[in-house]
Design a protein that fits this description.
433 residues, globular
């Protein structure tokens, strides 16, 4: 039985890995094309705007993205639509509020906080992108929780980057502002397609839509549980985001936009290492939620250990490939980005720990231990922010890369400790009972 499950996982995982590899390739081509088209300073400005978008979207989603995976996976077919209704309306409300706030504070944030006046014109686009990206992320998570992992992955990069590359082939972008407009059109297209497919798979119809728009939200126990989980998941997602994406924003205050662009490129390349984990999580997150709810801890542990062993081997191979291939890859870009070579090598070591420890964060969240994850993430994130603020002004991008890698590794090692303590221990007790 375990062998059949493993074989099915490998077969499904291979197909999903192919989708994620396509997404990785498209993302790399997109940033490569952008780095060639734009001056290094404009590429850096675009990178800062995208970092702002990531944080704005994280606030807008309010943790509903991850909560939707767990609650949709555990729900029966009749409850999925009501869960989606509650989540999409709640996320839409917070997205609009977030967009208005960042739009009104554009000058203060761009000039006084980041000391980059050039960013002011891009903030309104970031505000609009925040709403679109929130919708797209929620839809992708509902696909994942509902068992459509392939569709979920398609809307986390493949569709949007394909559309963006198509637009870049037709229209020329000479500035960060023009590039961001084209990216906005691509994201809007991906979001529209996600709604169309989601309405077919749930299924949603005109009656459902009318109910979603004109019926008030009833404070059911389930909705209260979703809100409670989402508050914890918001802290977790923000902590994860801070670990990987705050450093470019802090760097922007102290270094040139060209240097920010170099660091942002290094992050993008290093993040490719995390794609196998994204694929595995897309398959296993709903499984972990169902197995834990059913009290089948032994099957939970077997699934987890098989995945971790696979990810450990893949992570080790990935690091070896990166260390050998990173220099020729970076030389494909402009010579202004050569400093990214060392930064990528540092960052992938943190990614190695991220993969080698397995889906530990996902396991804790899907088993209802999000409060514990929130506490651990919050403590490490605060230390991470303090370290970035202290060392970046003196040591620049290299210190940012080292601190980011250490924070990422620490969070995953701490999560692995609690997975052993809170979940694997139950499997051991069940096995000896």
């Amino acid at each position: 039985m375990a062998t059949n499950t493993t074989n099915q996982l490998i077969k499904k995982g291979s197909w999903l890995m192919l989708i994620k590899l396509v997404a990785a390739f498209l993302a790399l081509v997109f940033h490569y094309q952008l780095a060639l088209l734009l001056p290094a300073s404009e590429f850096g400005l675009f990178a800062v705007a995208m970092s702002c978008l990531l944080f704005a979207t994280a606030f807008a989603k309010q943790g509903f993205e991850q909560a939707s995976v767990r609650f949709v996976a555990q729900a029966d077919k009749n409850s999925v639509i009501s869960i989606y209704k509650f989540i999409i309306l709640s996320a839409t409300k917070s997205a609009f509020i977030t967009a208005v706030i960042i739009w009104l504070l554009a000058d203060i944030f761009a000039i006084k906080v980041l000391n980059k006046p050039q960013l002011t014109d891009l903030i309104p686009l970031v505000a609009l992108l925040t709403i679109i990206q929130t919708w797209l992320s929620i839809n992708a998570s509902v696909f994942k929780g509902h068992g459509y992992a392939a569709l979920s992955l398609l809307f986390t990069g493949v569709v949007s980057y394909s559309a963006a590359l198509g637009l870049f082939a037709v229209f020329e972008a000479a500035t960060a502002f023009e590039a961001l407009i084209l990216f906005l059109y691509a994201l809007a297209f991906a979001c529209l397609v996600s709604f169309i497919l989601l309405f077919k798979t749930l299924p949603l119809n005109f009656v459902n839509i009318k109910t979603m728009l004109f019926t008030g939200l009833k404070p059911t126990n389930q909705q209260k549980d979703i809100k409670k989980a989402s508050r914890n998941l918001l802290i977790i997602s923000l902590s994860a985001l801070v670990t990987q994406q705050l450093s470019p924003l802090i760097l922007a205050k102290y270094v040139t936009l060209a240097e920010v662009g170099t660091f942002a490129l290094a992050i993008k390349i290093a993040m490719l290492m995390s794609y196998p984990l994204v694929v595995i999580n897309a398959i296993t997150a709903p499984k972990y939620a169902k197995l834990y709810k059913a009290g089948n801890y032994i099957a939970f542990k077997k699934l987890a250990l098989n995945n971790t062993a696979f990810l450990f081997a893949l992570a080790s191979l990935g690091v070896a490939i990166v260390f050998v291939a990173i220099e020729p890859v970076i030389t494909l870009f402009d010579s202004a980005y050569l400093n990214a070579i060392l930064l990528v090598k540092i960052l992938v070591l943190g990614q190695w720990v991220n993969l080698a420890t397995g889906s530990v964060v996902s396991m804790l969240i899907m088993s209802g231990h999000e409060k514990l994850v929130r506490r651990n993430m919050l403590i490490i994130t605060i230390i991470n922010i303090i370290a970035l603020v202290i060392f970046i002004p003196y040591f620049g991008a290299v210190s940012a890369a080292i601190i980011t890698a250490i924070a990422m590794a620490t969070k995953n090692i701490a999560s692995l400790f609690y997975v052993n303590k809170l979940i694997y221990s139950k499997a051991n007790e069940s096995g000896t009972a």
